[in-house]
Amino acid sequence: MRWRSFSIFIIFLAILLATSFPFTDDEGEIEQFSGLTMGTSYRFQLVGIPVELSLKLIAEEIKVLLMDLDSGIFSTYAPDSELSQLNRHVVSLPFEASPELMEVLLLAQEISVLTNGAFDITVGPLVNLWGFGPNPEISRNNLPTGAAIEDALQHVGYNYLSIDVVHSQLKKNSDIFIDLSGIAKGYAVDRMGKYFDSIGIENYFLEIGGELKMKGFKPGNENWIPAIETPQDTVPEIYEVMNSRGKTIAIAGSGDYRNYFKQNGERFSHEIDPRNGRPAANDLAAAYVVDSSTARADALATAYMVLGLEDASALAEYTGQAAYFIYREESGDFADQHSNAFNDYLDF
Predict the structure, then answer these.
(1) Residue 261 burial by CB count (10 A; 0-12/13-18/19+): exposed, middle or buried?
(2) How distant is the alpha carbon of residue 340 from its chain centre?
(3) pLDDT for 306-333, tens place per residue?
(4) What is the reported pTM?
(5) pLDDT (tens digit, 9 = 90+) per residue, 135-164?
């Protein structure tokens, strides 16, 4: 392992997540494109770009594609985005949806059902109530009352959104607010992967806000080497390294160690359980998921944090999902556990 690369490595960490040691050789065989999107940063590393392709054109198309996905569809900040229009739409009145929004909402509902509601794109009112959202209803010095939690729960529930696949229509059955921040960045990574596939890029490493997809190899036929961060709110450290084996894989993670507060010795994480309206209370510090879809890995990692180690690991084994969990022991030390499907990525 080239541990000296760590100071550069942490650039690829966005909030938390598996990422990769960067590689740049003297011949400049890796072309890098970077910028801002979805309230975070992106960095794409491409190897072996066909000579007939224009780097300038690729850069322009990247920006257009990401802008369409962000301010055009998934942003809750852009007033004219498709999602903002849906959130303002009248309850019980059908809403014509784009293929992209339909795809993400269908996947979100699939994960919600799979996890018994641990993942829920309507959880926004509770996130705000606990002081973690863009429009927090309280300061973190005052915990919400039971009555306030119950009131917010009346506006939370993935089942309040009906999806008509045949007619590409959506219908809100209650006054809900949909926030796709737990899945949209992963979806954007997947879409960029499809774009690079379509123009003949055989090797790449893609990252948006810490959500990853990699394909093929670095120069010299070397594997991309993703790494898992130690779940602590100090200087980033490497906890474990993985082997991509040249496969096309997506990696996403979630943790409770970057965004939390303490009151009277009790720790409150931004990972809100949509089922009871309170911050998840378990020993799980971080969850990482490997999948073919970054969007799916993104949503599952969030759900696993809510479920906790026992239920999350049981679900991962039951579904054959590659997952890696870091949890806190009673001593305060970290320990880890992973599903059988994850073994292949730890074997060097």
Answers:
(1) middle
(2) 22
(3) 999 999 999 999 999 999 999 999 898 9
(4) 0.88
(5) 665 566 678 899 999 999 999 999 999 999
Using CA atoms, how far residue 343 sits from 241, 252, 309, in Å, is 12, 17, 18
Alpha-carbon distance 43 to 35, whole Å? 7
What whole-number distance in Å separates Cα of residue 260 and Cα of residue 269?
Answer: 4
pLDDT (average), residues 116-128:
93
Is the pLDDT confidence value at 85 over 80? yes
End-to-end C-alpha distance for the chain, whole angstroms: 11
Q: How far is CA 110 from CA 42, 156, 337, in A?
A: 27, 17, 25
Residue with tokens 């990769």: 20
Instruction: Tell me the residue length of the chain.
Output: 348
User: What's the gap between Cα 250 and its chain centre?
Assistant: 10
Please report which confidence band the pLDDT of residue 33 belongs to, taking 50, 70 and 90 as the band edges: very high
Question: What six digits make up the tokens of 342?
Answer: 């994850």
As a whole number of angstroms, the distance between CA 119 and CA 136 comes to 20
- CA 215 – CA 184 distance, rounded (Å): 20
- Domains annotated for the chain, with CATH where assigned, are 3-68+183-345 (3.10.520.10), 91-172 (1.10.3980.10)
